[in-house]
Amino acid sequence: MGKTRVKICGLTRPADLVAARGAAYVGFVFFAKSPRNLSHDAAAALAVTVPAGQCKVALTVDATDATLDALLSAVPIDMLQLHGHESPARVADVKARFGLPVMKAVGIAGSDDLALLDDYARVADQLLVDAKPPRGSALPGGNGLSFDWRLIAGRRWPVPWMLAGGLTPENVAEAVRLTGARQIDVSSGVESAPGLKDATRIAAFLDAAG
Question: Helix 88-98 vs helix 65-74: angle between axes, to the nearest 10 degrees?
Answer without folding.
Answer: 40
